[in-house]
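Suppose you are handed only these lines of text.
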Amino acid sequence: MKLRDVPGPKAKAIIERDKKVVSPSYPRSGPFVMDHGKGAEIWDVDGYRYIDFVAGIAVNSTGHSHPKVVEAIQKQAEKFLHISSDYYNPVWVELAEKLAEIAPFSEPAMSFLGNSGTEAVEAAIKLARSYTKRKFFIGFISAFHGRTLGSLAFTASKAVYRRDFFPWMPGVIHVPYPNPYRPVLLSKPGEDYGETVVRYIEEQIFNKVVPADEVAGILVEPIQGEGGYVVPPDGFFPALRKLCDKYGILLIDDEVQAGMGRTGKWWAIEHWGVEPDIVCAAKGIASGVPLGATIARKSIMEKWATGAHGNTYGGNPIAAVASIATIELIGEKYMKNAAEMGEYAMGKLKEMAERHPNLGDVRGKGLMIGLEFVKDKESREYFPEFRNKVENYAFRLGVLAMGCGKSSLRIAPPLVITKDLMDEGLAILEEAITLAEKDFS
Ligand SMILES: *Cc1c(COP(=O)(O)O)cnc(C)c1O
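From them, the structure of the protein bound to pyridoxal-5'-phosphate can be written out as follows.
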């Protein structure tokens, strides 16, 4: 394997121009300058090829420019681009029907459509408040739910996201996410760590911080994304559902990163057999066209008063047709591929962890896999410098992978990835780890 001298000259030139005119607030992960992509492969402007383990942060679910998605967009573009949510359009209805079919409720569903993950979360917050007539929410440390002032009130994965922005929406109380690799609460004997966190909410928060009957909702990622690809213990969601039922609190499931078939099921929460009340979807929902959806039990969303919430672009026809094609493709074959390729990669990565002392934890479901790097497996001390080296060597060897959490790397390729590309990508990743080991030895 050869370490390439990337970024090349064309990429460098574009990065220079970008620096002059694009907001520096964007956190960039690496000097990759996209030219084009196909399936799970991407090429930069200098012609260098990469295996895509990022998928635009779990967005390009059907791979880059899937012909069926492109065709749907082209056909729609010739008919009309926009009509506004003040009127009706057939593809909007078709999309909402499709979302109702795949919604994780054993009752009918309704959807509110927007343009991004954060808008899906904002709509969920407003729906929960107006439905319950309650004010408070529970959120989780290390969560990411977006950057507008409602969703930012929950986002707690990096303090820099919040610096200078208070007051965001008041009323959110943060509790630890059940991270089994790094527990911060004491479990009782025989108690699952997920159950411990739920007990903490009931015993500590509801008794001492805010009464349960003033809590509108609990907003939670089924698997933490930005926070480090953290999978909660199996007891967590069943216990959380029980807690919500006991106190009439809405369980709001942020599936923006984990949903849309990525984990091998439509919604990651289905891995634990739990039905939420509201689901937020975006990222993988339309293969790269901006779209967000707040999907709720019909019994909840039908109570929303006309005018209570709205937008200009809701159900935008270009996004809707891209999403319809995406949902069909995922349902036909790619969700199955995500489950199979995910299991395959997980097996290989767990073997890899045995060979590499700094690869402390491998976790995930389907094609949402996190690798956590540590100083050593005993202490589990964070090792972000090591992670950064791995990310950079992988980039130079031809794999685009992105960090998450303090010391982790995410593997989130398009759901279309083949076994050959997965093998090639994992071999490159192992070489990158080996090179990083040499640097720190
Ligand atoms: C990315 C993300 C969001 C925000 O989505 P945007 O489209 O960037 O606003 C919300 N929740 C989760 C879980 C995410 O990963």
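What can we learn from it? The chain has two domains: 9-65+333-440, 83-315. Residues 130 and 304 are 8 Å apart (CA to CA).
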